[in-house]
Every structure is written in structure tokens, then in C-alpha cells.
Amino acid sequence: MIALFTDFTLNGPYVGQMHAVLGQLAPGVCLVDLMHDAPRCDPRAAACLLARIVAPLPDDALVLAVVDPGVGDPGRRAVVLEADGRRFVGPDNGLLESVARTAKLSRWWQITWQPPQLSDSFHGRDLFAPVAAQLATGTPLEQLAHMIPAGHFADWPTELAEVIYVDAFGNLITGLDAGDIDVSARLVIAGNTVAGARTFSAVPEGELFWYHNSMGLVEIAQNRGNAALSLGCGIGTPVEL
Amino acid sequence: MIALFTDFTLNGPYVGQMHAVLGQLAPGVCLVDLMHDAPRCDPRAAACLLARIVAPLPDDALVLAVVDPGVGDPGRRAVVLEADGRRFVGPDNGLLESVARTAKLSRWWQITWQPPQLSDSFHGRDLFAPVAAQLATGTPLEQLAHMIPAGHFADWPTELAEVIYVDAFGNLITGLDAGDIDVSARLVIAGNTVAGARTFSAVPEGELFWYHNSMGLVEIAQNRGNAALSLGCGIGTPVEL
Amino acid sequence: MIALFTDFTLNGPYVGQMHAVLGQLAPGVCLVDLMHDAPRCDPRAAACLLARIVAPLPDDALVLAVVDPGVGDPGRRAVVLEADGRRFVGPDNGLLESVARTAKLSRWWQITWQPPQLSDSFHGRDLFAPVAAQLATGTPLEQLAHMIPAGHFADWPTELAEVIYVDAFGNLITGLDAGDIDVSARLVIAGNTVAGARTFSAVPEGELFWYHNSMGLVEIAQNRGNAALSLGCGIGTPVEL
């Protein structure tokens, strides 16, 4: 299985061309579109989401993750992260940082394989997809990359006390691990104090609340409402416990 | 084949996580995304659409249908509907009612299988998808569910004389079966009387008309226009014959 | 592999029903959604995109392309284009014209096969998809169609000096082949003169520029901005070299 996580959106020719390449180079391999509206040009927020969204994948799934860090940036390297046996192909811009941190064992590789043709603006199609396809069909990693030291994002917080994604319903997903936070805790966001609840139906219509979402993160929602609109919040809005 | 019908939208991590679970538990089974923008939290309208959209599926397709009836609602049961041999996995909130009614033979089962981990807010991923995957790969239904009496939505009309979906072009799909309605009939919607036509090109540009759509429902459209905007209508707007 | 290119959008029941038919009639064949937001009812612009987007497909891929030319138009025929061995199934409305022109060898066929049931408004599902599925599973083309002379769009320009698509980020894809245009050339669009650059990061933030995009077309973008909004442009806006 190759699972895709990008900020390309589902509009336009981008995801389709990725699938065309993967379908040609890795025929018969199952493709899963995890998400194509990851926070755009925001690898820090996207990293938090990525680390969570991969949970239901099989252990041998290969993850192809591309969130743009500035096309043509000379500091960008193409890497493979091995995290507890699972492989992630993507840019060296911090996107894979949360996955690496939450893994017991992680190793980094720099991709050395070069495609016959590399466009300036679509490394996802020309470089990352062919590498993912080769790995998924059995090419040894050593033939495509060489091992390198861990990434350079040691100053990034492991949790993000801010909104990292707003879903289609206006629910505000934060980068806070919900695991240790009791439902009696109160959050402050955009000047509002928000109490916790276990489910939507546990609060009156129109009420804001926070809950442990299905990815294990703190999420702020409004029963039968749109929390993002009601609070005027978006990706990056700080949250305080 | 497992066919998906939900109100999750294609944005965000929701459909991707469903595919991840299905790809892991039912490898090699064809997944079809029938629709992921079913009328949200509106199982009555969604039920009409579902009964129609499944027509081109093979007889042995399994349908996984989730439209939210209020997460955490204690009255919600997870069910399997067998309708003329085809199986539908979904919530017991009326979503499967139209399918059951239009079937010659229908049987209802309550799902008794429980996942090792069940989140509060994503039963689609944690409960419905694994059940669908197990059924699609040959687990006998008896091991996952026990038979129950028919559903509780006897007061729902079989046809809905209202708009049940607005497509991306502003066409208004109603819940009225077009089969028996002659093209000379006139509809009234939002104070406008609308004549019938067989095709878009049969009416002048800008003209509103109704026609037998490709799912066998009455649909109101505007040639080269957006009927929803022109009429100020949406899901739930009543239609009179 | 069957690759789909349509103007249906990913909303609603349309693409899902296409997949249902293809999954039933061509089980096991890989389906690739190249793009479902091709320029709507604009086969001239869509034709330029189609000719480019198919590049990464394997040689034996079959392309199913539907962009609406006016439902019910009596002049519309269903055709198959063979272009350098690759097959395209679609309407005879110019959509396949650019592919035919850029091929060394092209042959046209009119589809004679008729489905048992043909709706007035969804030939994609009822006619084009079953033909594509039959071809992909080995039915000889001669059983479905007969050869005809080339298409009727000889007056269409091979390149389009105008915007043919606006992506989700506001980048303006034109129908101009970038191959022969030096990066020092200047474009004029909506009264603005735009210089060329190789990558986004090569220009200051907020600056408009044009570049060779990953499909080999001239594209106008704004670094960290939305060129479509800044320029007030859309599909059809003329571009001058």
C-alpha cells in the first residue's frame, strides 16, 4: 500500500498525475489518498496531522508525503524516513519530524536516485512518486538513497498548542495530544473559555466544546454549528490549556 | 466491491482513514467512492439518493453508508440491511430506509461485533469499515450481527416532494420518482412554475425546466445557468406537482 | 489502466457512478482520476489540458474523456481516437483534437455500440464508461465502432494564447507551449507585463512571473500570492507574448 498525504488539493491535474505515475510504476499496489488538503506551505502543522493520520495504516504501508516548503529552495533535500519499520518518502522540511519523534526507532536517508526528467515545480510527480513506487515494488532502499543524520528541526515543539487544521464542518483540530487531558479541563481560544465533552450530543445546540478527537488530538467544535466561523479562528490560532 | 456513501466530504482526513482501514482489512477488494457529500445530518434526504445511486453497482457489491445522525446518540444502532441480496452497512437512523422499501426482500441485522478500540466520534472508521471489510472478505454475517425486525421509519414518505441534493452546477435533484410523470407536467418550486423538457438543449438559454435525471428522479435545472442561485433554493425546498 | 478526465467535479454522484460501472465491467483494471474539474463546457480549453496531462500514463492506458458539449446536441457523436497506439474514448466535440494533432499517427472511430439503457443526460455513465471498460478488457474496437475521417476542428489553433485553467492556488495555466519560449521573454496579461522565472523562490514575495510548468505549458503565478485574484483573470483571458 502507498498512502498519499499532500497539500495539492483534489482540484486540478496534480493528484491525478501522481496516481498515473504510481499506477504505471507500481501496478497492482493499493493507493490510499489519506489527505490532499494538508495545511499548505505549513510543514509544521502538517507534520502533526501526518503523525496521527497514519495510525490505521498497515505496518508495511509506504507513505508518500509532500507539503511544499518553497519550490526550488536549494536547502530542500528529498528524504526517506524509516520509523519503526514504516517508510515515509518526502521533503526534508520538517514534515516528517513528528513521525520521527514519536517513533521508537527512526533512521533518515537522503534520496540519491535521480529521474530521467525532473521538472522545476513538480517533484512530487517526478521524484517522490517514482521513489515510492520503486520502494513499494521491492527496490532496496540502499539503491535509491544513503543514510544521513537525523533532521534539523530540534527546536520544533512536539505538540502544537494551536489550530493545525480546520475541517469542512468548521471543527478546529489542534496539535495538542488529548491523551493526558481530563475532560474537565478548560481551553482558552480567541478569548473564549471552552469546556470539554465526550460527544457532540452531550452539549446543547450551538455550544462550543472541546473533545478527544478520533486521531487522539484536542479538537474544538460547536454542536450543530461552525466553530471556525463562530470564533473567527483558523490554522495557527493559539490554544491555551 | 465495497461502495462508500457518506457525508464526510472529500476534505480532511476522514475518507482517507476509511480507505486505509478498508485497504488493510480487505486487500484487493475494489473500493468505489459513490459520493462523500451526501446531505449532511439529513438521513431522510440522503436515503432517497442512496436508493438511486446504487443502481449501477454489481449485485454482490457491499455498500458502506454513513450519514451522521448525531454522534453519541444512544438510540443509534449499527445495522446491516440485506436488500434483494445486496448488503448495506450503516447506522439505524433511516438512511437505509428507502433501499429497504424499494427492495422485494429485505432483512435487518444489528451489528454485535465490537472493535478493539472505538472512538467516540468516528464509528465510520472504527466500526462500520471493519464490518464492511469482514463481510467483503467472506466472514459470515451471523458472526457479526443478529437479525432484528424492520426499521422504525414507517412514517417516512417513500418519495420526497422536495429538493434532496444540489449539485455543483446548481441543478436541484428532488426526491420525486420521475418514472410516472409526463414531461408535459408542470412543477411549482419557490413560487415558480416550471415546464418539463427532455434535455438541456431543448430549452432556450437561461430557461428553467425539469427533466427525468439519470437516476430516475425529477431534477430542476436552468440551461447554461444555476437553478439553485436563480431560485434561491436548497436541500429541503418543497416541490409541488 | 483507465484514466478519467471530466468536467463532472468530484461533488455529487457523477464520478462515483462512473467508477461503479467501470469497476463492474472491468474488474481489476486500475482506475486513475486524472482530473474531474476540466474547464466546464469548454472542450477547446480542455483539449489543451488533456493533451498534456496524459504524458505520465503508460502507453497502453485507455483514456476516458468527457467534457460536456451540450447534452442532447444532435451533432454530437461518440468516438474513439487512436493516437500513437493509445486510445481515447469521448465525445466528438473537439475535446480530443489536441491529442490527435500532437500524435504522429491518429485514427478516428465512431462508436456504434449501444447500451441497453441510455439516459438523456449521463452518456458518460451509460455509453462512454461501458465502451472504455470493454476496450480495456479486450473487446476488439471493430466490434464497438467503425472507422471515420478525422475530426472537424481544423480551424482550432494548436496552441491557445489564453488561460485554459486556474488551479486551486490561483495559478493561471495557459495553452501556450513553453518549450520554445526563452525565460527572458515577457508576457502581457490583463494589461500587466510579466517576466519569466524558473521557480517560485526565484522571485520576491508578491511578484507575478511566468514559468515553464510541469506539463510543458506557460503558467503565470505569483510567489506566495494568488495570480488569478491579483489580475482578475480566469479561463479565456488572452495572453500575449
CATH classification, class level of the largest domain in chain A: Alpha Beta
Q: Please give the number of β-strands of chain A.
A: 14
Please state the average pLDDT score of chain A: 94
> H/E element string of chain A?
EHEHEEEHEHEEEEEEEHE
Please, how many domains of chain A?
2
Roughly what fraction of the amino acids of chain A lie in strands?
A: 25-35%
| Poorly predicted segments of chain A | none
Shape of chain A: elongated
Oligomer: homotrimer
Distance between the termini of chain A: 38 Å
Structure description:
The structure is a homotrimer of 241-residue chains. Chain A is α+β, with helices and mostly antiparallel strands. Helices cover 20% and strands 29% of the residues of chain A. The first copy, chain A, is built from five helices and 14 strands. Chain A has a seven-stranded mixed sheet. A four-stranded antiparallel sheet of chain A has the order 8-9-13-12. The longest helix of chain A is centred in the middle third of the chain and has 14 residues. Chains in contact: A-B, A-C, B-C. Chains A and B meet through strand 2 and helix 2 of A and helix 1 of B.
Can you give keywords for this protein?
homotrimer, 241 residues, alpha+beta, Rossmann fold, Elongation Factor Tu (Ef-tu), domain 3, seven-stranded mixed β-sheet, four-stranded antiparallel β-sheet
Give me the secondary-structure topology:
The structure is a homotrimer of 241-residue chains.
Chain A: E1 2-6, H1 14-25, E2 31-35, H2 43-53, E3 62-66, E4 78-83, E5 86-91, H3 97-102, E6 106-111, H4 123-136, E7 145-148, E8 160-166, E9 172-177, E10 187-189, E11 192-194, E12 208-212, E13 217-222, H5 227-231, E14 239-240
Parallel strand pairs in A: 1-2, 1-3, 3-5
Antiparallel strand pairs in A: 4-5, 4-6, 6-7, 8-9, 9-13, 10-11, 10-14, 12-13
Helix pairs in contact in A: 1-4
